[in-house]
Write a structure and sequence with these properties.
Elements: E1 2-7, H1 8-15, H2 18-26, H3 44-48, E2 53-61, H4 68-81, H5 83-86, E3 88-91, H6 127-135, E4 146-154, H7 160-171
Antiparallel strand pairs: 1-2, 2-4, 3-4
């Protein structure tokens, strides 16, 4: 696992390609099934401009890719638990899974907006470009390795104690 604190400006310059990412998203079988996925009804640039920093985590787990949801169920609550401590907003790996109420139930609006969380890619960041530029890694889709990319939008530089605690918790996850 690697953690990088990146300025929003640098992240936008190097990895913000919303048209490209929307094209990828539109090919997904779950496109238009989740409120956290594009097309958003708000100005993404206005959201991003409220946060000068982004904490990005590249987490490679040597597990079967079929265990994706198992690991999300562990990691997502840990990350969300640090939002107040780090004064930020979590960016989850993939689509929001904090309830089971989305479009597939016919909803017009998110019933639990306080639980709604976006991913880097849903906001227009190209994960391949991000990983190459800031982690010197390639996004992989191997069946024996789960490559999760997630993080947090931050209003200020994170407190090092809380950041170390978060890192310790994420490093300590196991079956």
């Amino acid at each position: 696992m690697k953690i990088r604190l990146i300025s929003m400006r640098a992240l936008i310059e190097e990895a913000f390609f919303p048209e490209r990412v929307l094209d990828y998203c539109s090919r997904c079988e779950n496109y238009n099934m989740h409120f956290a996925c594009p097309n958003h009804q708000f100005n993404i640039s206005a959201l991003l401009n409220r946060y000068p920093f982004v904490l990005v985590i590249s987490h490679n787990l040597p597990v079967n890719i079929d265990e994706y949801y198992y690991w999300r169920d562990i990691i997502d609550p840990i990350l969300m638990g640090y939002e107040n401590k780090l004064m930020g907003q979590s960016l989850l790996a993939g689509s929001c899974r904090n309830c089971d109420f989305c479009f597939n139930k016919g909803a017009q609006d998110c019933e639990f907006p306080q639980l709604l969380r976006y991913s880097l890619e849903s906001l227009g960041f190209d994960l391949s470009a991000l990983l190459a530029q800031f982690f010197n890694e390639e996004l992989n889709f191997r069946t024996d390795n789960l490559n999760l990319v997630y993080g947090m939008l931050l209003k200020q530089r994170p407190d090092q104690i809380y950041l170390s605690e978060l890192e310790g918790e994420l490093l300590g996850i196991s079956y």
